Amino acid sequence: MSHTLTVDYSRAIRLFPLAQCILLPHATIPLHIFEPRYRAMTRDALDSDGLIAMATFDGHDYQHDYEGTPPIRTAVCVGYIVHHDQLSDGRYNILLQGLARATVQDEHGLSAGGYRSAILQPTEHDVMELDLEGHRQTLDKLLGDPHLQQLTCIRNIRSWLSPDLSTPVVIDLAWQAVARDSEQRYASLAQPCVFERFACLRQHLGRTRKTLALAEQMGPCTSETGLPLN
Q1: Which of 70, 97, 113, 175 qualifies as a cystine partner to 188, CB 3.0-4.6 A?
Q2: What is the dihedral of CA 161, 163, 165, 167, to 10 degrees?
Q3: Are 93 and 30 in contact (CB under 8 A)?
Q4: Alpha-carbon gap, residue 149 to 161, rounded angstroms
Q5: Nearest-5° angle of CA 207, CA 212, CA 134?
């Protein structure tokens, strides 16, 4: 989808800010749309280009000004609604696929439907796959490591890994799957350089591997009665 759909950055794109939900390019997340303003946002998106930019709140002001326009962090992910179901009461269940990294340049006022929108600036740095050949080999080796294969998320990545997927796509999908929390995902979203995203992912997987290897060396911890202690 990200290779066939062109985003028109000259037009304002709808913003959907949430507290914890971070979407990365190429990944797909399910969303349940129930607030009236975001129902309107979804209807407008479905009636036009299908685009919604996932944003995240900056700080905790949203807890006191959620209905207004509390500050959001500048990095967002432009997403496309690849599937939707409208429920009888007007709510939606949608699947949103990430398309591209962007930053908020000029936020518009609230729309007639009560949701936010902004002019965005794409931030992705284009890199040729040939320049990432060594990085891809390193990543494939890490994802195939027996220790890391103990993790369900790593096994899931391996199940859909394909030579047809470019290295930047694999890095983003891997980060979406292995990140500990929304802060790690946001850091990856806000990083325009794929080489930096790869370096952080390699460090994360390397630390995880060392932890799993150490746990294996220590063996299971049990009490005198045989109950697990860890």
Answers
A1: 175
A2: 90
A3: yes
A4: 14
A5: 45
Instruction: Residue 198: name the closest of 159, 143, 160 by CA.
Output: 143
φ, ψ of residue 50 in degrees (nearest 5): 75, 10
Residue with tokens 């790593």: 154
Q: Where are the beta strands (DSSP E) in the chain?
A: 13-18, 28-33, 51-56, 75-86, 92-107, 116-122
The whole-angstrom separation of Cα 230 and Cα 222 is 8
pTM recorded for the entire structure? 0.87
* Tens of each residue's pLDDT in the chain, 230 residues: 444 688 999 999 999 999 989 999 999 999 999 999 999 999 999 999 999 999 999 988 878 887 778 999 999 999 999 999 999 999 999 999 999 999 999 999 889 999 999 999 999 888 999 999 999 999 999 999 999 999 999 998 888 888 889 999 999 999 999 998 999 999 999 999 999 999 999 999 999 999 988 887 876 544 444 444 44
Per-residue tokens: 7: 């985003």
How far apart are alpha carbons 73 and 4 in whole angstroms?
28
Q: Indicate the angle between helix axes 133-143 and 194-218, nearest 10 degrees.
A: 20
Dist. CA 211–CA 215, nearest whole Å: 6
DSSP state of 148: G
Domains of the chain: 13-122 (2.30.130.40), 129-217 (no CATH)
